[in-house]
Design goal:
By secondary structure, the chain is α/β, with parallel strands linked by helices. 36% of the residues lie in helices and 15% in strands. Helix 4 runs parallel beside helix 7 and helix 12 runs antiparallel to helix 13.
């Protein structure tokens, strides 16, 4: 055997050994390429245009980092009605719609009994970290699995899965049924609490965090604008008639004397300031550190909902300096959080997606002052009026229980006992509301086949209707109209783009850089995360993976 032949054999042997080692390593369970940690961020009430409305004032590490490094789905819509907080969080993480996952609103009515239900209310569990009813919460009312549940199942429950939000529903619904923990803030104490669904007592690190009284720290300082107030050119000047003052004050304006307000309102005042978001991300950092998230043999999941944007938006409206300042501060908080994850886990080793549960309209008063269409609905007076109309015809009072979630909820027990014609009552309700100037349509949800609506709206009504938890008639208001007694602030729940067009931005491990204007639905988020993690889709999923964002 010549020297060259021998050398070639040695090289062939070495290559064979290396290939065998690579094959063995590639078939180890721990070698499946996946991110160390998935972080889902839902910014409550964030309209899509907020990515660009304040773009020039954002820094490079928050929203602009996500846009410049990640992938943005510019035309993401909510594919059901109504557009409410609990429904949005449930839909993001289940990959489906209220007709299947069963969360029909923040509050809804069990149609068989007429009993009101809170989306995460659960009288069978006990508060942990509190003695109040604020802890009697769980995901029991959610009827399908979430992508976070599926990650637990796919890893034989070795993945850690934690939900965090100052709102209970913002922590519980994303975390799913099998979560290791969900934490939310108790308004009276400012403490992070949980329920016996997850644990018997709070972990020591949460107890220590509560002992720090960070809420009181933030309340010791006034809320002033981050920059000179005359530079907030994207907002209506301060002290206008479109905003709702804090309780006990006569007008809404800067500076906000948080210490003084806390004496009368209590610690819950923190919810309606940008600092509620800061506290949430503080809690998220502690969870990553103390639960060692992202340092597992399998991927972990951290579900965060930033809810102060919703409180501030409801109170002050889209065009307020308060909302602009809240997003400029949130941008800094997100930059700090991403920097923390980079240092803790390594840049590019984790995946983040950021989206919203719904948007919000402009205040109708502001619209009207600029010759734009809009107006107000008074749900209480409408309920009284329609019940008086039905009583005159059928001889029974309060045939309609409620107009919650833009839906007519009938009292089926009364109708049955009085032997009334339900079909006739439904038709009378449709005729009654159809004649009101505030409504574009009143639609019998049992007769959608004959409804004269655009196809896109029919699909959203079908997707949003849960037979056991939704009302029988949906009231579609004209664009720019929403319920208000004080005619200040804003509300949401409608099909219009201001409520249904939401941001969706991805960044990190496995994510291409780019964007698409292809229409994507909120139901597509969970399937995309499922494909990224190589796990099964949630049990009720009807969405499609957004294939163009994923690196091959």
């Amino acid at each position: 055997m010549g020297l060259n032949t021998f050398a070639r054999l040695i090289l062939l042997l070495i290559s064979s050994i290396a290939a065998t080692a690579a094959f063995t390593q590639g078939n180890n369970q721990s070698s499946l390429p996946r991110p160390k940690l998935v972080v889902g961020i839902v910014v409550d009430q964030m309209r899509w245009d907020y990515l660009y409305r304040y773009y020039d004032r954002y820094g490079t590490g928050g929203f602009r980092r996500m846009l410049s490094e990640g992938f943005t789905c510019e035309n993401t819509i909510i594919n059901y009605l109504p557009t409410k907080t609990a429904i949005g969080h449930a839909s993001v993480y289940t990959g489906t719609v209220p007709a299947i996952h069963g969360i029909a609103g923040n509050d809804f009515i069990e149609q068989k009994t007429g009993a009101p239900m809170y989306c995460v209310g659960d009288s069978t569990v006990q508060a942990v970290g509190s003695h109040s009813d604020a802890g009697k919460m769980s995901p029991k009312n959610l009827l399908t699995t979430t992508v976070t549940d599926e990650l637990k199942l796919a890893t034989n429950f070795r993945s850690k899965n934690i939900g965090i939000s100052i709102k209970d529903r913002g922590a519980i619904l994303p975390a799913g049924h099998a979560a290791d923990a969900a934490y939310w803030m108790e308004g009276t104490t400012g403490n992070w609490i949980s329920s016996s669904w997850y644990m018997k007592e709070l972990p020591e690190w949460v107890k220590k965090l509560n002992e720090e009284k960070l809420v009181d720290k933030y309340l010791r300082e006034d809320w002033n604008t981050l920059y000179p107030i005359d530079t907030y050119l994207q907002s209506t000047p301060d002290l206008n008639t479109y905003e709702t003052p804090y309780k006990g004050t006569k007008e809404a304006g800067f500076p906000v004397r948080l210490g003084e307000l806390a004496k009368t309102i209590g610690r819950s005042i923190i919810l309606s300031t940008p600092f509620g978001n800061t506290l949430t991300l503080d809690m998220a950092k502690r969870a990553v550190e103390n639960e060692n998230l992202g340092n597992n043999t399998v991927p972990d999941f951290l579900a965060i909902s930033l809810s102060s944007t919703d409180y501030v938006g409801h109170q002050f409206g889209i065009n307020s300096i308060e909302v602009e300042d809240t997003y400029l501060r949130l941008d800094k908080d997100l930059a700090d959080f991403f920097d923390f994850l980079d240092k803790r886990l390594g840049k590019g080793s984790y995946t983040v997606f950021l989206t919203a549960d719904h948007g919000a309209p402009h205040n109708p008063g502001l619209l009207n002052d600029h010759r734009l269409p809009g107006g107000w609905l008074n749900s209480s007076s409408l309920l009284e009026e329609v019940n008086a109309f039905l009583e005159k015809k059928y001889g029974q009072s309060k045939i309609i229980r409620s107009l919650v979630n833009n839906e007519v909820h009938l009292d089926y027990t009364l109708i049955r006992n009085a032997q009334l014609d339900e079909n006739a009552i439904r038709k009378d309700c449709v005729d009654f509301f159809q004649q009101k100037d505030e409504f574009a349509w009143a639609v019998d949800l049992n007769d959608l086949a004959n409804a004269n609506l655009p196809t896109a709206l029919l699909e959203r009504l079908r997707n949003g209707y849960h037979r056991e938890r939704s009302g029988v008639i949906f009231l579609v208001s004209k664009t720019g109209y929403f319920p208000s007694k004080s005619k200040t602030g804003v509300d949401h729940g409608h099909w219009s783009p201001y409520d249904s067009h939401i941001p969706l931005v991805w960044m990190g491990w496995g994510i291409k850089h780019g964007s698409t204007t292809r229409q994507i639905s909120i139901s597509d988020i969970a399937p995309t995360v499922s494909f990224l993690l190589h796990i099964q889709l949630p049990s009720g999923s009807i969405g499609e993976p957004i294939s163009e964002i994923l690196e091959k």
